[in-house]
Design a protein that fits this description.
about 120 residues; two-stranded antiparallel ribbon; Lysozyme; 5 helices; mainly alpha
């Protein structure tokens, strides 16, 4: 799951912890929306704040909680990408997440190519 989240950070913000997107709604390296923070706090009885989205470590913690809650410990990258893009109801909106899944795979591929070239 750590590799998945690393690639997700590259896709969402190129790893920029101060990134702002989606008209100011998505913040941080993982481009977390407020609804995800509230959902994670509800799920895990935590007290993450909206400012915690600017902290890469806390953002990753929230992502781990979110993925484990909705997908369990044996989630596949495709399921995680679609969930991240569309939310808990992603299975009913799978067609809306096709482009995001393609972008994730391309980001992963590009990272692997760059890694191989640097060796």
């Amino acid at each position: 799951m750590k590799t998945f989240i690393f690639i997700l950070m590259l896709l969402e913000s190129n790893g920029d912890p101060s990134a702002v997107g989606d008209n100011g709604k998505a913040i941080g390296c993982l481009q977390i929306h407020p609804v995800l923070v509230y959902d994670v706090n509800r799920i895990a009885n935590t007290k993450y704040t909206l400012n915690d989205r600017l902290d890469p470590v806390k953002s990753q913690e929230m992502a781990f909680i979110y993925f484990r809650h909705y997908l369990g410990n044996s989630a596949k990258p495709e399921e995680m990408a679609r969930l991240w893009n569309s939310g808990p109801d992603w299975k009913n909106k799978k067609h809306l997440t096709n482009n995001y899944w393609k972008k994730y795979k391309k980001t992963y591929y590009d990272f692997c190519v760059t890694l191989r070239a640097s060796q």
